[in-house]
Amino acid sequence: MSSFPFVDYQGNELCIESVALSKIAKTFGTPCYVYSHAALMTTLQAFNTAFAGFNHLICYAVKANSNLAILDLLARAGCGFDIVSGGELQRVIKAGGDPQKTVFSGVGKNPDEMRMGLAANILCFNVESEAELLVLNQVAKEMDKVASVSLRVNPDVDAKTHPYISTGLKENKFGISTDEAERIYTEKQTLSNIHFTGLDCHIGSQLTELDPFIQTSKKLLDLIDRLEAKGLEIEHLDFGGGLGIRYANETPPSINDYVASLCTIASKRNKRILIEPGRSLVGNAGLLLTQVEYIKHTPDRNFAIIDAAMNDLLRPALYNAYHDILPVTKNKDGTENYQIVGPVCETGDFLGHDRHLCIKNGDLLAVMSAGAYGMSMSSNYNTRPRAAEVMVDGHDMHLIRARESIDQLIAGERTLQQTIPENNNTRNFA
Ligand code: LLP
Fold first, then answer.
1. 64 CB within 6 A, ligand 1
2. Pairing mode, if any, of strands 302-306 and 396-401?
3. Which of 40, 150, 382, 409 could form a Cys-Cys staple with 200, CB 3.0–4.6 A?
């Protein structure tokens, strides 16, 4: 099966579901993120089918793509959420997500964010250090609340992924070693405003093998056994996210095999299972639509300068990540080798190297597998307004985020003439 089941050529025209990408470009302009409703829902269905019969909760990792339309669809389909900031919590609530199905991850939650989570009665805080646990206890005490807590365990397992997104090795900043977690669970049961309800891990992202997940799960279950032997009851087991997708030639485990392996390991314990998938849910449900601005031939190379850049899709610049790039209109003439680059003033601003394409000025290209960590990692570098986002559902195109304007972008800025110094409120400004 294709990696992009709802993107295909109809004749020479690349379409997403029943809509030609050229029509989307004409209607909303470029660069533009485009998502398939069917791809998102089909993938979610695959997770739920694989879990059938198990007490489970899918907590979508909001950081992968936090557009309210996506959160709303997932919330209405029964998903929970994995958040890493107060801002993400606000998005979940705004989109109609259930805080009681929301877990709060992240290595540096501040007291304000803890307060927001406690006020919303979230399902669980995934706590990453003893120091954080003590602050959470204090904040909860001040609010007369009890925080439900999982400790995030760092199992020291190699996720065999890009070092920047590998999180489960002992040298990484994330989580607490199993021995230390055992000590904290045991000693800190007495904290008045903490209730230990779960055990959590997340060893990295874009994993293409099952083995690291299996090794980690076994370590978690050993720890549960040790804790339960001491009388500490754990209600849920959170396996984090991390399942990889196919960008090029990777062969990640299927959703079914991944879920089955977690369920097999956990089945003897009769615990509620949580997972926090991000990329595997939305990655191949989205693409970045862009137009070729100029073709530039130099003695060494051919450049296609496109209107999308590293500020729109950072993954190639940051991780040297590969994204397939397809012509929106297939052309049968001979191809040439192109460097696909953006307008940003950095040599690192590329979206693809050595792509064999037949293109000219004005042609449209689709940068594939951009549904996860695309828009959510975009920036305004070079004072570039962020792209529009469109969701396609059958024949319908929905604008789910308007293109940013320059006015929006500079709205919070003031010159010194327009500001009153904090220590001198006598000064006038024109
Ligand atoms: N849970 C936690 C605690 C996480 O930190 C993450 C991702 C996830 C779940 C979701 O992982 P996923 O299922 O998406 O692999 N910007 C990078 C990926 C960073 C992932 C950060 N944490 C990229 O573009 O590849």
1. yes
2. unpaired
3. 150
Ligand 1 atom, smallest distance to 283 CA: 14
Domains in the chain: ranges and CATH: 7-35+283-410 (2.40.37.10), 37-279 (3.20.20.10)
Question: Cβ distance 285 to 35 under 8 Å?
Answer: yes
Q: What is the mean pLDDT of residues 45-60?
A: 96
Ligand 1: does its nearest atom lie under 6 Å from the Cβ of 281?
no
pLDDT tier for residue 1 given thresholds of 50, 70 and 90: very low
Mean pLDDT, all residues of the chain: 95
Which of 276, 280, 288, 313 maximizes ligand 1 atoms within 8 Å of its Cβ, making it the mutation to test the pocket?
A: 276
Q: Is the CB of 168 under 6 A from ligand 1?
A: no
Ligand 1 close to Cβ of residue 375 (< 6 A): no
Two tokens at 303?
A: 């450049």
Catalytic residues: 345
Structure tokens, 120: 């919303």
Q: How many C-beta neighbours within 10 Å does residue 340 have?
A: 25
pLDDT tens-digit profile of 353-392?
999 999 999 999 999 999 999 999 999 999 999 999 999 9
Residue 31's pLDDT is: 98
Find where tokens 């319908």 sit.
396
Q: Choose the weakest-confidence range: 164-168, 204-208, 287-291.
A: 164-168
Which residue lies with its CA nearest to atom 7 of ligand 1? Answer: 205
- CA 8, CA 134: separation in Å to the nearest integer? 53
Nearest atom, ligand 1, residue 318 CA: 24
